[in-house]
Amino acid sequence: MAQTGNVRTPGTLLWRRLWRFVGPHKGKLFLVVLLNALAAFADVFSFTLLVPFFNAFFKSDQLLPTTGTIGRLLQSSIGFLLDEQDRMGSLRNVMLIVIGAVTLKNTLVWFAGQVGVKLQEFVVRDLRTAVYAHLLRLPLPWFTRNKVGQIISRVLTDTSNAKTVVTELVTRSLWSGAQVLATLVAMFTTSWRLSLAALVIAPITIGAIQPVLRKLRKGYRTLGNEQGEMTSLVQEVVSGVRLVKSYRAEGREERKFTDKNNAFARGFVKVGRLALLSGPVTETLGTFTAVAILWYGAQLVLVEGTLTGAELLVFLVQVMRLLQPLKQLSQTPAAAQQSLASAERLFEILDSPSETAADRGTRTTASFTRDIVFEHTGFQYTDGAAALIDVSFTARKGEVVALVGASGAGKSTLVDLLPRFIDPTSGRILLDGVDLREIKLDALRTLTGIVSQDTVLFNDSVRANVGFGTPDATQEQLNAAASAANALGFIEALPEGWDTNLGERGTRLSGGQRQRLAIARALVSDPPILILDEATSALDVESERLVQEAIDRLLQGRTVFVIAHRLATIQHADRILVLDDGRLVEEGTHAALLASGGAYARLHALQFDPRPE
C-alpha cells in the first residue's frame, strides 16, 4: 500500500493524538480514576490491618504501634475495636474489617471496569468514525494508489487494535497505577529506607526493556501491513472468483495466500517472542528486589531495632503485592506497541489531505446556462506521465459531446475533470466563464450525473440504489427515471418490487439490468450535465435502443458527455472529439469526420469494415 509519508511518528505524539479522542469522555475517565483510587486505598488498608494480626501472633506487647503514620492511622480507624485483654476478639474484629475492605475494593474495581469498558468502546467508536468520515473525503487519486484490502484493514482491524491503548490505560493501567501509588505511600510510611531500596531497581527495569519496545512497534507495524496484504488478496479473489475458476487458478491463488499467511505467521511468532520478554525480565528483577529487601529489613529488625518484625512482614507483603501491578505496568508499553503501530497507520489516513481541505473554491452555488470551455487543459500524474496535453474545445448547453479514441487516450481523465475528481495541472476549465476551481466541490457536483462503465450497486433495496443521489425523491420521480432508463418493467417484476434487496454489487440482477438501474440513478437527480462512460455497453440491442431514445428525449437543456467505444452509439452526437495519447486530434460531426479521412475515419473503418486496406 502506498504510504503517505516515510517519517515515523514519535510514540509520545501518537499518545497525544489518541488522547484527543478521549477528551469528549473526560467525565467517564475521571470516574474511572476516582473509583480505582478508592479501590487501591481499600486494598492497601486491608493489608495494613495485618500489623495487629502479626503483633498478636508473635505475642507483642501491643497490638498496634504507638508511633509512625501507620500506627496513627490504625489507632484512629480501628483502635476502638481492639482490646488488649481480649486479643482473639480483637483479631475477630480485624478480620471482619479486612473482609469488608476487600469486598469494598472489589465492588469499586467492578464499577470502574464497567465505566472503563464504556470509555474504551466510545473512544474507539469515535476514532473509527473519524477515519471512515475522512476516508470518504479523500481525493479519487488516493484510492487509485491504495489497495482496497489495505484500506479495509485500516478502517476495521487497525481501529480495533488501537483500542488496546485505551484498554491498557483505563481498565488495567489505572488500576495498577493506583495500586502502586497507594502501596508506595504505605511502604514509605512504614520505612522510607526500605522503600528507597525497593525502588532502586525500577530505572534498571525500565531501561532494560526499551530496546525491546522499539523492536515491538516496528514489528507490529510490519504485521499490520502484511495483514492488509492478505485482506487485499482475499478481497480480489472473492470478487474475481469466476475468473479464477475459469482459468483453473485455484491452486496458484492458494499458494499466493499460503505464502502471505506463512510470512504473517512467522512475523507474529517473532513479535510474540519479543513481547514475552518483558514479563519474565520484570518478574526476575522484582524477585531479586524482594530478596534484597528481606536481607536489608532483617538488619533493621535484628541489628538496628528500628523496625518491628510485624512491620517487616507487612512491608514484605506490600512489596509482593506490588510485583503484580508493576509487572502489569511494565507489560503495558509492550502491549501498547501494537496499538501505536495501528494508530500510526490510522493517522496516515487522517493526515492525508481531504478534498475539502484542498478545495480553494469560494462559490457556494453553481449553475449552468451557457457552455463549458476547456482552455489548453492538461493533466499530468505525480510520476510525470501526461494523460491530457493542451486540450481545448467548447461544449455548449444542450449538446451531446462524444469522446472516442483508443484505451489510454485520455477520455476518462477528461470527464473526471468536470466534477473535479482531479484538477488540471495546466490550463483551465470554465463553466459559464467561471473557472471550475473557484466553485466549491459540493456545489459543482450537484450539476453532474455519472453512469460509469463499472456499474456500482449497493447491498440495499432497489429504491435506495436508484435514489442514492437524491434520497428525498418521490416515488413518482423514481418511476419516471426508471421508465426513462427502461428499468421500470423488471423492477416491478422483482419479488418485492422497489423494496427488493439487490445483494452485494447487485449480483441478483443481470448485467443489463444493473446498468439500467445505474442510468436511472443518474437521471432521477435530473443533472444539467450528464457523463455516460460507455453507459449502454451492457445492454442488449432492444434495451440499448430504448435507453438511447430516452437519452435523446432528455437532451433538451442538458449537456451530455459520452465515452464510447462502439461508434454506432454516437453517430448523432453534436460534437465528436477524437483523442490520441492525451491530445485532441480531431473534432467535428460524424459526417464531417468521416469525410476528412482522419483518425475517426480509420476507427470507423476498423469497426464497420475490418478488412485490410
Automatic annotation (TrEMBL):
SMART domains per the UniProt record, alphabetical: AAA (SM00382)
User: Which keywords has UniProt assigned to this entry?
Assistant: ATP-binding, Cell membrane, Membrane, Nucleotide-binding, Transmembrane, Transmembrane helix, Transport
The record places domain ABC transmembrane type-1 at 30-338
Query: What residue ranges carry the coiled-coil annotation?
Result: none
* Annotated localization: Cell membrane
Q: Its topology with respect to the membrane? A: Multi-pass membrane protein
Against CDD domains, the record matches this protein to:
ABC_6TM_MsbA_like (cd18552)
One Pfam family name is ABC_tran
The name under which this protein is listed is: ABC transporter ATP-binding protein
